[in-house]
């Protein structure tokens, strides 16, 4: 589906691109369902989605009273090429009906040095005991290569997910 469900917040360098797994210089993805990935360029590339929980079947009372766990996962590869470093960032925000930030997950950017192992890694976070009033989830990820090479040698991302379920 390409970028059909994404907003391109920044599309620098040679812009975002969709490629088939494993791709040029790529490695196999541990998740067999993933067939394609997004890859960044030498300029900053960030894309996002804003998910309306009501549209996805989660009613206000459930989110306010039960506050089910919200599990966020994103797969990224340690460098699109082992000989090119890159940077990866993820920001997930729980938003109110007015899109005010109620809680945020924004770990330190992952900087992958040149000559890395080029293996896929999973970034994950579980929101628990968050404030009442969550109505939207904003998900943004991206990055760029750190060698500033023309083309698509930045971070690769795929198989992003948000799962809402009972507390464990």
UniProtKB/TrEMBL annotation:
Residues 1-166 form the FBA domain. GO terms for cellular component: cytoplasm; SCF ubiquitin ligase complex. The gene is Fbxo6. SUPFAM superfamilies: Galactose-binding domain-like (SSF49785). GO terms for biological process: ERAD pathway; glycoprotein catabolic process; SCF-dependent proteasomal ubiquitin-dependent protein catabolic process. It comes from Oreotrochilus melanogaster. This is FBX6 protein. One of its GO terms (molecular function) is ubiquitin protein ligase activity.
